[in-house]
User: What shape does this take?
Amino acid sequence: MSNAVRTPQSLRTPPHAPLLSALLAALLVTAAACAPEPDTTHGAGAGSKSGASAASCAKGSLATQTRGKLTVGTDKPAYAPWFQDDDPSNGKGFESAVAYAVADRLGFAENQVVWQTVPFNNSFAPGEKKFDFDINQVSISDERRRAVDFSSGYYTVRQAVVTLKKSRYAHAKSLADLKGAKLGAQVGTTSLDTVNDVIKPGPKAAVYQKSDFVKEALSNGQVDGVVLDLPTAFYVTSAEVTDARIVGQLPDDSGRAEQFGLVLDRNSALTTCVSKAVDALRQDGTLAGLEKKWLSDAVSAPELT
Assistant: This one.
């Protein structure tokens, strides 16, 4: 009798085990190769996870606030030349027309666009949004990107100084000529940043919660002048405060053009698709056509040196 220790039958390696091991290893390698890689792309808003390579921009795939609808926010009153008749839904005015053009690119008909009133400062404040995107002359900035996403820019804008025609500053030619002026602007805007960081007039800026209050202050002579984006300045001086004039537009010394962007929730799944829509409208000339139609009067003004 042999003294060798016998291996129990249940623990013996079957003769075909090496073949099974090889097949299993091959299957694991194949599975790893086919697994989706992590999405590291970002939309126009910093922090967005909606990479163009992973997102489908087909209407049925868009995670909108209400299925089959596109909810668009803007402030009230919605004033010209961005909107007409305080009615964003009528498609008149530059931003109303842009919103519907973006909606069309995303596959939404006009009757599938729902408008929602959103105060200007709330649109880019931290916190969850109840709109799919907001359009309200909101300039893209690094600071705002910390709280929200932005689409690609849909309009490049300059800031302008407006005074009453009788003002001692009405014929200022340079920033130095405005050093003693009391200037007003809306809170939270690049217009206010322009007063504080570019003009630096000396007297502390007068700050107003709404754009209507800015215009009232100008009309009533409570300030020497106000700072507005150039298209708004043209409309204000031609239709609202007709005894006012544009003194001049501010130079762009930053090397980065100021642009308005559509505002989206932070890390919105829509950011990339909305940006792609804006980019397509720029490339096919739609944005230029809408700008010519609705903002044609706001093409030039003297530049303050």
